[in-house]
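Following up on my earlier thread - several people asked me to post the actual chain instead of describing it. Fair enough. Here it is, all 87 residues.
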Amino acid sequence: MVMGNNSHMREIGQNLDITKERVKKLLNIPVLVKINSGRGRTSLCKGEVTAVFPAVFTVKLDDGEIKTFSYADVHTRGVLFLNPDKA
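Reply from S.P.:
Thanks for posting it. Predicted structure:
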């Protein structure tokens, strides 16, 4: 058994970088955010990504509330971005 040579483990970091770039492209664009709150609870919110930081990003919802998420939330599909026109 060879330890530390798992190519899938290295891909996770690369995919997280790709996730960060995808979120950066959504900056100031209206989106529909589907948030998985756990135990089968989800919520849909309209808003836009207003700021991106190295570890987290913020979404300002249409009602004025500001929510902060990590890129890992998007990477693990805890937060999904949908096109508000198609939803």
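The chain has one domain: 7-82. That should answer part of your original question.
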